[in-house]
């Protein structure tokens, strides 16, 4: 687990530092500390810093302090420390305290009598120790996930030494940022790359905060464009873990920052040698989540059912032929909305044939839906309620949703 602001406030010798606002952010991970010497800080921080404001080298009135806090929020700082005393900043303005609470940024007061050299030495030492332990934990987890380890028993001993409990059942969670391809299509490479890196820093910080709040002691690792971590799966514990994760992903997608993640979950893992396969399962569920369940944000490998069989077929032509054999007649390429009948049929199946609910979901009149049903039945030669048609069409619709070609055409 990364060093948090809560950990820092508990360090020996720092008891004089007092939290004044933003307590909801105490589980934010601290990457490093930064002592602000200039009028602004935006150009000097990257996210995750604990920013110290002394007022020694630059006057700090209320407006400037508020400006610094807003810049810190934009850049994703972990917290802000204001040094107070008679000489420079006499007290923390109430307006700054209120803003820190509103933004969720921990605001800490440090008296000038507590020497800065002591504070930075204690924090710096703790950060180095934490990072060294965290790097070892990441290394252990990555070796398990990739299967690249010389000796499993030795790796198990390292895990015990680093206080990683792999004796309980766990799940592998893989998250991926959405819309990267569209980002680079719409903006110049330099601008798109800058946004992407900032988005990754922001997501890394927020995800680590959530894991800290859940008491998750396993490290967060990154591989390519994925964030990977472990979730406990014991009795009702996994349901609670999955619930907070799904809620967090939805809130993130509904925010105004353009950040959106999809998640794939593996089956339960109980043996160390099974983590490589679990990562493959999580990635498979993640890919299917993007195609089949984007609104739910999470796809659970254990709940994929027959989709696992479809995704295991190596020849995509077999799947494509099956889809076209059964529902290809519904794809009207010469129309403005070539997928209209496919989407109508899919909605009908999702609503268990309830015409009223299907029409409401599609945003059309029931008479219009009945007309589409008649077209579907005429083109396929089957009544929608026919059992064999329902089975084949359900599989064909799933293949249609899984198809990357469909996604490209649909965009």
Describe the model.
The protein has 411 residues and is an alpha/beta fold. The chain has three domains: 5-124, HprK N-terminal domain-like (Udp-n-acetylmuramoylalanyl-d-glutamate--2,6- Diaminopimelate Ligase, Chain: A, domain 1), CATH 3.40.1390.20; 165-304, Reverse transcriptase/Diguanylate cyclase domain (Alpha-Beta Plaits), CATH 3.30.70.270; 313-410, Arc Repressor Mutant, subunit A. Helix content is 52%, strand content 12%. It is built from 16 helices and ten strands. It has helices spanning 5-9, 62-75, 94-103, 116-146, 152-161, 180-186, 189-213, 237-254, 275-292, 307-311, 316-327, 340-350, 355-362, 366-380, 387-402, 404-410, and strands at 18-21, 32-36, 49-53, 79-84, 107-111, 170-177, 221-223, 226-232, 261-265, 298-300. The strands form two sheets. It has a five-stranded mixed beta sheet, sandwiched between helices. Strands 7-8-6-9-10 form a five-stranded mixed beta sheet, with helices on both faces. The radius of gyration is 27 Å and the shape is elongated.
Summed up:
The chain contains 16 helices and 10 strands. The chain has helices at residues 5-9, 62-75, 94-103, 116-146, 152-161, 180-186, 189-213, 237-254, 275-292, 307-311, 316-327, 340-350, 355-362, 366-380, 387-402, 404-410; strands spanning 18-21, 32-36, 49-53, 79-84, 107-111, 170-177, 221-223, 226-232, 261-265, 298-300. Helix 2 runs parallel beside helix 3 (94-103), helix 11 packs across helix 15 (387-402) and helix 12 (340-350) packs across helix 13 (355-362).
């Amino acid at each position: 687990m990364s060093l948090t602001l809560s950990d820092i406030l508990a360090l020996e010798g720092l008891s004089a530092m007092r939290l004044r606002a933003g307590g909801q952010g105490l589980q934010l991970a601290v990457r490093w500390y930064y002592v602000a010497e200039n009028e602004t800080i935006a150009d000097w921080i990257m996210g995750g810093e604990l920013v110290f404001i002394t007022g020694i080298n630059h006057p700090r009135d209320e407006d400037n302090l508020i400006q610094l806090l807003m810049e810190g929020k934009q850049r994703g700082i972990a917290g802000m420390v204001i040094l107070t005393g008679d000489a420079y900043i006499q007290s923390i303005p109430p307006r700054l305290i209120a803003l820190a609470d509103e933004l969720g940024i921990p605001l800490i007061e440090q008296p000038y009598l507590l020497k800065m050299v002591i504070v930075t030495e204690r924090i710096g030492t703790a950060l180095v120790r934490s990072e060294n332990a965290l790097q070892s934990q990441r290394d252990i987890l990555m070796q398990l996930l990739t299967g690249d380890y010389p000796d499993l028993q030795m790796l198990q001993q390292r895990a015990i030494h680093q206080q990683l409990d792999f004796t309980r059942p766990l799940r592998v969670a893989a998250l991926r940022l959405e819309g990267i391809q569209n980002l680079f299509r719409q903006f110049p490479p330099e601008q798109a790359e800058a946004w992407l890196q900032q988005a990754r820093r922001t997501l890394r910080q927020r995800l680590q905060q959530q894991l800290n709040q859940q008491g998750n002691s396993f490290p967060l690792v990154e591989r390519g464009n994925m964030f990977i971590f472990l979730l406990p799966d014991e009795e009702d514990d996994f349901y609670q873990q999955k619930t907070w994760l799904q809620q967090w992903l939805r809130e993130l997608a509904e925010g105004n920052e353009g950040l959106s993640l999809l998640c794939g979950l593996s089956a339960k893992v109980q043996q160390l040698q099974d983590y490589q396969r679990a990562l493959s399962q999580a990635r498979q569920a993640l890919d299917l989540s993007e195609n089949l369940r984007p609104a739910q944000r999470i796809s659970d490998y254990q709940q994929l059912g027959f989709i696992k069989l479809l995704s295991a077929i190596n020849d995509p032509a077999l799947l494509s032929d099956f889809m076209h054999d059964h529902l290809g007649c519904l794809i009207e390429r010469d129309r403005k909305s070539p997928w209209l009948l496919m989407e109508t049929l899919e909605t009908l199946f999702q609503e268990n044939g309830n015409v009223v609910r299907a029409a409401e979901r599609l945003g059309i009149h029931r008479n219009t839906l009945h007309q589409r049903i008649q077209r579907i039945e005429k083109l396929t030669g089957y009544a929608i309620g026919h059992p064999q048609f329902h089975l084949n069409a359900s599989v064909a619709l799933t293949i249609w949703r899984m198809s990357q070609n469909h996604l490209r055409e649909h965009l």
